């Protein structure tokens, strides 16, 4: 074997020069040299004996004039001898008993183990055998051509002549037979199959299924032409099947795909030089590979094997890394795999049978946890499910979507449950099962941006359980909350609006076909942060059961309103609100449910309850609608309507209610609704012709209100609005203008804010966008507010924490935020400041243009006494200082140390303390960049340490400690001034809080420097130590002494690490010259 290795290396020179004659001469001479060594060298006696035994069974080893085949035969003989020798060594090996004294030592190797150099020699020999004895005898188009491999392979193609068809087939049969025998050995089989599986499969496919005759051949000439008997072909088929079943399946899939070859269209269109494409395979081989791939696919675990086999070439294998990321980005390859999986192969009995076998395996791809391949597998699985749902919806719903949703459908209302057969509190759906179900639904359904009606219809039965699970997760911490919420929002957004309203009506328990969790089931918190579905514990107290039911329904209504608040951009919340108002109007038109008169005498209480119960359900529905409308108005009234048409629908519904029954409550709501119409007509919104066409629907209703309503003010306003709408705003009476101004909220308290917003440079505003007021819907009056009278509301003030332009960075929204920043209402002002801070954090370009005015607003808000306001202002100052420190720090430093302009007294202590807090947070946010402002900050803090106010002195020292902790090595010579200041304060200040702050500065300084303290504080370390000892001996305040003790402990640990560094276990290797 070593001689063959030498031959290969010696022949490399002429091979590279493509000298065919030199190659043949080299092979011939080396075979002769091998024969001479085996015959004469006494050391090779055992090899000579094994070789003679192998020659007796090897009919293909007979001498012949073909030099390449002679070389191949000798290599095959040596490989057979090696395999038999290794088998003998392994059979006679008896491993020694384990040594307890060396338990961690590696076990001894088996005597048949190959060394690294020996493995390299065997690989070379196998490569020579495959190149010289297998590939040249393959038919055109079978396997990878030799010309597309190495230079040596291209040379072999010109040297080896296959000869007659029968002779070539016999040689191919001999090579494949020997290689199959070698593959039975574990060590040799791994070396062979990892590199040459594709060539071996190509040879076996040709021998077992290759063409048996050509056109014009007679049947009796078939065996003569093929060179194989039917028994040998059958043996090759069995060997091929056994090899395919034994080898790693993804590797088999990849090699079969290569054997299948490229398409004829791709081959004709590949005209680019240097681009290597697979040549088209023969038709019989393409059919065979397709059949074998279909068999691989339908096996247990076959889908995963096919996906791995295709994607591992793109980096989704064990290597992972950057290749895995590249494979995830190659969505075309993932989509191609999905198309393969979704197409039923011709070999399948039926489409139903194929889906029954493959669909469970596709669902398993969604549950793979391996991070290296999870992204690719999930992409393939999701695309496959969606493709199957589009092409074959019935089968997909039966075998894919149904099993995916089964854990949710198992516990629906109306499901067959037998509690008597289950123990108390038995778990129906385990945590892992429920989590996998929700995650799979989230991955699959939300990936389809244009879902079909079948896909939406399959999810609709599980919406009630998903909503119940979402409500349950809101009561505790669970990772299932976000996916459940996103699934519900996706369904409501993608389905038709009528279907979405019907689902919302069902979730609110107003009717519809939504089915909730089974009454006997409940969700329980699981151990891993998820949830389980279990049977309820029996409640004996009927009042307790009723309380649980009512509180649960109330909680679900609140969560439904929260869910609608997340979908405000789509207009669904406004449409559902209008739907509820129409429902109230319908109830008002019917006059409410009436109980039929019955004869009560002589009836038992049970019969009396049965008589009264039919009238309770409509009343319960009406109360639930009223409650839902009140909750919608209270929670999301300011952003309920997204367009003019929705507002028109709302006003129309309100006018209809007023026409049906005009009362105090309706009058109050009516004045607000007509105020909205007046605001629209007064210029709050730029109305178009389509908007006026929608407004004309209100004209008959306004005319009826102007005639039938008992209050003259509302009659006059309704008549004037009707005139204004009919004239398209050309004529607007004074009452309409007054109502518009009242709705828009012209308040004197906002004049200062308007001036601040008007200071914005017009050139900085986007062109074509005027600063217009925003109309918001005020909270609707409820039954409890009926006594407030029909006074018109003034919705100009923004509700607490609910800003109209919360997420819109436009100039109009920015003006609203600037207005609200001066709002006397504390929650509204704080919410505006936080919204401005978020825009600064997001680096909004329009906000950054007015950063000077924002800084002025934030700094002025520091004077506010409420912590909600000034803490929000501090946050805004910190975010501005992070972006523009040169512009923010000077005003803060001035406010911290000096007096107001033109005033004799200094700033109030509270204001200076707030400025100090802002400076400290800004210093932390700047981090290492604070070095540029070191001198100014230290100067201000050292001056503040001498302030007459004790609180300011303590604040300055605290800020000084934070600054020193951040600066570390960048302190420089300033450390001497800091040390002298601390020593003076500790020894002379009368306030204990100030002395505590001074000693705490030392603690922060030592913690920040850590091991570097001995270098940075080299000149003052002794002074600091003496100062701390002085505090320990002379200080009377216990907290100050505690700080000093902590500082001494830090200093002791630093010095110990410096003097006695921990030993490092290092091994030094010195290379001697």
UniProtKB/TrEMBL annotation:
Pfam families (alphabetical): ARM_TANGO6, RTP1_C1, RTP1_C2, TANGO6_N
Positions of the UniProt region annotated as Disordered: 748-793
Gene3D superfamilies: Leucine-rich Repeat Variant
Location of the TANGO6 N-terminal domain: 8-296
Domain TANGO6 HEAT repeat: 297-568
Highest taxon, organism lineage: Eukaryota
Originating species: Gekko japonicus (Schlegel's Japanese gecko)
Record protein name field: Transport and Golgi organization protein 6 homolog
Underlying gene: TANGO6
Family (UniProt): Belongs to the Tango6 family.
Biased composition (Basic and acidic residues): 748-767
Domain RNA polymerase II assembly factor Rtp1 C-terminal: 814-929, 1020-1053
InterPro entries, A to Z: ARM-like, ARM-type_fold, HEAT_TANGO6, Rtp1_C1, Rtp1_C2, TANGO6/Rtp1, TANGO6_N
